[in-house]
Design brief:
Blueprint: H1 8-22, E1 26-29, H2 43-53, H3 59-70, H4 77-90, E2 92-98, E3 101-107, E4 120-124, E5 128-129, E6 133-134, E7 138-142, E8 145-152, H5 162-175, E9 185-189, E10 194-197, H6 224-232, H7 234-243, E11 245-249, E12 254-258, H8 261-282, E13 290-296, H9 302-316, E14 321-326, H10 329-341, H11 343-346, E15 351-352, H12 356-364, E16 371-375, E17 392-397, E18 409-410, E19 417-418, H13 421-428, E20 433-438, H14 447-453, E21 456-460, H15 462-467, E22 474-478, H16 487-500, H17 506-523, H18 526-547, E23 553-557, H19 561-574, E24 582-585, H20 594-600, H21 603-614, E25 622-625, E26 638-643, H22 649-656, E27 669-673, H23 678-685, H24 690-696, H25 705-719, H26 731-734, H27 738-753, H28 756-776, H29 782-802, H30 809-819, E28 821-825, E29 828-831, H31 845-852, H32 857-878, H33 880-898, H34 904-927, H35 932-942, H36 953-969, H37 979-995, H38 1006-1020
Parallel strand pairs: 1-4, 8-9, 13-20, 13-21, 14-16, 14-17, 15-16, 17-20, 22-27, 23-25, 23-26, 24-25, 26-27
Antiparallel strand pairs: 2-3, 4-7, 5-6, 7-8, 9-10, 11-12, 18-19, 28-29
């Protein structure tokens, strides 16, 4: 066997060296620190540090602070972490008695202003005993507080990766929850991939940190050093802890959020730019008030970036007033809701202005602080100043609208002058500073936007967002032809929308609306809507069947409110059972027909629909919308969008970006186009970065995904060379029974299992085939769909059968049971075996013999090997004697099998015999009246040849039981690593053995086996 030259311990050493030699952290080993193992705190350093950074505070105050951070009223981990996060960022309020008087004070846990005044330690193997005894790889302590837990895996070992590190951290949260009371965030790394996330984050929400200094090059993968150097530079680390970790609260759940690297550096740049503008304004050097524009691709967390920005500004500018501007009420509500969720972090309650006079009152009554939300319509009533203060920051959301203009317009009928919106807000807030945040770039015709806000401060484009895993790519499928709309009609629609999308005069817009009424008749015609609804239902059902995911959702963007209701009614006629699956989400109007009102509902009803649609497990799966939910609406499980409305420029990109959110194994979002928006997408992309244009300029699945699917289909066919794939296209497979298909699938599994190298490559390539199939399935022929389904069924079965992951007995039973069932269509279940119960023991001879009797001997051998290997692994953790016996037998047996010295039938026979011996060994312990652990010591004591000639069995059993009891009663937690403790343990064991006059003369080496078994036992405990 080739020795692994870079293990997890080697990687751990490399990280320790980086922190010690470059970042200046002290490094310690937990085994060398005398402490209470039931507390995760480094108490000695905590007391010393708090006295250092709170030099004038009395001992009583320090002690009270330590008591408060060590004791919490709630037993809920998240609630405890919320309270500690507040302590960490804002200090601990303490009340205590001093000289007979009640005192109150604030004790800081960290000196954020002076990094070197804090105590930074990186500890390895820091043992904690709670529900279980655990030792995380690395913990970063700041002033004795365990703020970051790091779990490392070596990429040079098979079946270990960041996913395993993530799962291990989740287990730690159950086993030693007290450690995570103090957790700011966690890091998982397997050398090639390093990510950070919080205690509430799913694995998909752990993100890479891809820059050290904020200068991001176009790179898909970052070195492990990039994250550690980028996040744990002492000054930046403290800055992240203080300003870039927050809790978002809602009635559903509390979510802890760690800023991504793109958010951190954008906020730093934006706040610095804002401060520079304000300082120049105060010194009368520059009164333009332009702080710039932050362009972060839609879906990359723009709303939270604005929250981080607002919070940091409060600290940098001594509590300025912030006015947040949107151009629509629904966007105002969505952004306001996000800020309200973070009000504890912002340390104030955001407020929505009811009207212009209310906004004026809010600003007038404030000399500091305040976060106020308003819409642009509230500025149109007048341009008189609302406030002349210079510490007002106006944040414009989606700062690319054509309404942001300085141009005045004169009504030709009334002669009235209408000021451009930029002029209105400048006149209303003459000394304010203006900054824009946008999810789409500023177009060439929106040059006024830059005149209002200035140049780009920071850009985080679509390409980088997808590369970082923040968003998913968007794919496009044209189905215009399915409606029978001709080219001339599509051209008319395009032309009309080109006119209305421009900053036109009101008269032109009114004229355009009349002409668009003609389009309403075309797109709302009975023939077009029937074709549309039939195709949507067919496409949706096929896509859901292929994905087999009940959680993913779809949205239909309708041309108008009347068309939306027609679509809803027609789909319900086609699928009456969908009355809870599909809902209409549009605004109501006083002139709506009575029958509309019962469908549209009230504002509260629509709010409830929003919660239902965002819940991936709710039965509402399809939303029919017009304008609502098409911008600023975040639903990660939304994967498909059907477009039946011409869209342009920013509105188009904002709308289709609803499907780019990260969710479980979602490959990407799919846009299904029924009105010909492909040219509009290409036109809108001209304003993006060059690499965005190259990456997303032609998202048509027929040109991007379909060729990749066909390529992977050919690869899978090649891997099945020598297997009769023509059977797939026979009628008995495509049109036949489940048993017909099952037979061919099992043959396919057996074929792939015959070659290890081929097996690994097939699993990888078939997975890619599945992912491309999910995006272009509607374009495939029936034979292509079934062939792909065949490969997927084989891949799932082979993956489960061949996996070398360590599983519990329950998990083994579950996975093997699942292996017995494979589905290639939604209503067909394939049973590979007959007469199989839902639950069974892997060591029931009936089950083992049933496997052995399988016609496909490769598959039978693979199943038996896996089951026995898991059992041997269990022995290796508990019984040193039997593990050596069975592991040697297994290794010898499998070597002969791989070398062709044993046939399938012979290796199955040998494996069954080995299984029988394992069963006998289980029974032997029970027959002697010994527990599993006692049986392990009994085997160690009786291993030397002839031992039973010297002692009767009753004496050996008595020795076994006393040895087990001795270890259990005298177990200490540091003997795994401290040599002095291990020596004491050995002396204790030898004294007991001497009492029984063990070992006999001439068998002195027997002690070695017993000591080894004892050491294994304590190391596993």
């Amino acid at each position: 066997m080739i020795k692994n030259i870079f293990t997890e311990r080697n990687y751990e050493n490399a990280v320790l060296e980086l922190f010690r030699d470059e970042l200046g952290y002290e490094t310690v080993c937990g085994y060398d620190v005398k402490r209470d193992y039931h507390s995760p705190l480094f108490v000695e350093r905590l007391e010393k540090s708090l006295r250092k950074i709170n030099p004038n505070k009395p001992t009583e105050a320090i002690n009270e602070a330590i008591y408060r951070i060590s004791n919490y009223e709630s037993n809920n981990l998240i609630q405890q972490n919320i309270q500690f996060t507040n302590f960490l960022q804002n200090g601990v309020e303490v009340n205590y008695h001093l000289s007979g008087k009640n005192k109150s004070d604030l004790i800081r846990l960290v000196d954020f202003e002076h990094p070197d005044n804090n105590d930074f330690i990186l500890a390895r193997q820091w043992t904690i005993i709670e529900n279980e005894e655990k030792r995380p790889d690395l913990i970063i302590f700041v002033n004795g507080l365990p703020l970051v837990v790091i779990e490392l895996k070596s990429c040079f070992r098979e079946n270990t990766d960041v996913s395993k590190a993530y799962r291990q951290l989740q287990n730690y949260m159950c086993d030693i929850p007290s450690l995570f009371i103090y957790n700011a965030f966690m890091v998982i790394s397997d050398f090639t991939l390093s990510k950070a996330g919080t205690i509430t984050a799913t694995e998909e929400r752990f993100m890479e940190w891809k820059t050290v200094d904020g200068i991001v090059e176009d790179k898909r993968y970052a070195s492990f050093e990039t994250l550690f150097r980028g996040m744990f530079d002492k000054k930046r680390f403290l800055n992240i802890l203080q300003h870039f970790v927050l809790y978002s609260h809602s009635t559903e759940k509390d979510v802890k959020i760690l800023a991504g690297y793109h958010q951190y550096f954008a906020v730093k740049k934006a706040t610095q730019s804002t401060c520079n503008v304000i300082n120049k304004t105060r010194n009368n050097k520059n009164k333009n008030g332009k702080a710039g524009v932050v362009w972060h691709s839609t879906g990359s967390g723009k709303s939270l970036t604005m929250v981080f920005y607002s919070h940091l500004l409060q600290n940098m500018l001594q509590n300025p007033t912030i006015v947040i501007l949107t151009d629509r009420n629904d966007l105002d509500n969505q952004l306001y809701t996000q800020f309200c969720k973070c009000k504890d972090y912002l340390r104030q309650e955001p407020q929505q202005a009811v009207n212009r006079s209310n906004l004026k009152k809010l600003l007038k009554n404030r000399v500091a602080n305040g976060i106020f939300f308003t819409t642009m319509q509230k500025f149109e009533a007048s341009d008189e100043p609302l406030s002349k203060r210079s510490d007002i920051i106006l944040i414009a959301d989606e700062a690319h609208r054509s309404q942001y203009s300085f141009n005045e317009k004169i009504d030709s009928t009334t002669g009235k002058i209408k000021l451009g919106f930029a002029r209105l807000i400048r006149n209303s807030l003459p000394n304010a500073t203006f900054i824009g945040f946008t999810g789409t770039p500023i177009s060439f015709k929106d040059k006024d936007t830059q005149e209002v806000f200035g140049d780009y401060v920071d850009i985080y484009d679509m390409t980088q967002s997808v590369n970082d895993g923040i968003t998913k790519p968007i794919y496009y499928e044209s189905r215009v032809v399915n409606l029978g709309l001709n080219e001339s009609i599509l051209k008319q629609i395009d032309e009309r929308y080109d006119i209305i999308s421009q900053d036109a005069d009101e008269q032109v817009i009114e004229q355009s609306k009349k002409q668009l009424a003609v389009m309403d008749k075309i797109l709302g015609s009975k023939q077009a809507l029937e074709s549309l609804c039939n195709d949507i239902v067919q496409h949706y059902e096929q896509r859901q069947e292929r994905r087999n995911l009940s959680t993913e959702k779809a949205m239909i963007v309708a041309y108008s409110r009347s068309v939306a209701l027609e679509i809803y009614n027609k789909i319900l006629c086609l699928r009456p059972a969908w009355n809870e699956k599909i809902k209409v989400v549009i605004t109501s109007d006083n002139n709506d027909p009575k029958e509309w009102k019962t469908i549209i509902g009230t504002k509260e009803y629509r709010k409830n629909l929003e919660h239902k649609f965002k819940d991936e497990n709710d039965e509402m799966k399809i939303a029919v919308v017009v304008d609502m939910w098409t911008t600023g609406f975040d639903v990660p499980c939304l994967s498909t969008m059907y477009i039946y409305k011409p869209l342009h420029d920013h509105t188009l990109i904002q709308t289709i970006s609803r499907v780019n959110r990260v969710f479980e194994d979602k490959t990407g979002g799919l846009i299904v186009d029924y009105v010909g928006i492909a040219s509009a997408i290409k036109k809108a992309m001209k304003h993006y970065t060059q690499r965005d244009q190259e990456q997303f300029g032609d998202p048509d699945v027929t040109k991007t995904v379909l060729p990749k699917f066909l390529e992977k289909l050919e690869v899978c066919r090649a891997l099945f060379h020598g297997f009769d794939l023509h059977k797939i296209f026979e009628s008995k497979f495509i049109e036949g029974t489940d048993r017909d298909r099952a037979s061919l699938i099992v043959d396919g599994i057996n074929f792939i299992l015959g070659n290890d190298d081929q097996k690994k490559l097939f699993i990888k390539e078939a997975l890619l085939l599945k992912q491309f199939h999910l995006l272009c399935g509607s374009l495939l022929s029936k034979p292509q769909r079934f062939e792909s389904a065949f490969f997927e069924a084989v891949r799932v079965a082979v993956s489960r059968t061949a996996a070398d992951k360590k599983l519990s007995l329950q998990e083994i039973n579950k996975q093997i049971n699942e292996l017995l069932k494979q589905s290639i269509k939604s209503d067909g279940i394939i049973n590979l075996f007959t007469d199989v119960r839902e639950e069974f023991s892997i060591f029931e001879l009936k089950f083992l013999q049933e496997i052995a009797a399988m016609k496909q001997k490769n598959l039978a051998a693979e199943l038996l090997r896996k089951l026995l290997r898991e059992q041997v692994t269990i022995y290796q953790k508990t019984n040193i004697v039997q593990s050596m016996l069975f592991s040697e037998r297994m290794e010898l047996l499998m070597n002969k099998y791989r070398n062709g010295q044993l046939t399938n039938a012979e290796v199955i026979s040998e494996l069954l015999e080995m299984a029988s011996d394992i069963i006998k060994d289980h029974d032997a312990g029970r027959n002697l009246g010994l527990t599993v652990e006692e049986k392990a010591f009994y085997d160690a004591i009786t291993k030397p040849e002839g031992i039973k000639d010297f002692y009767d069995n009753a004496t050996l059993i008595k020795l076994t039981q006393q040895l087990t009891e001795l270890l259990r009663n005298n177990r200490t937690i540091d003997w795994q690593k401290k040599e002095t403790s291990r020596a004491a343990m050995r002396s204790m064991i030898k004294r007991l053995l001497k009492k029984f006059k063990y070992p006999p003369e001439g068998v002195e080496n027997a002690t070695t086996t017993v000591i080894s078994q004892c050491e294994m036992w304590v190391d596993q405990e």
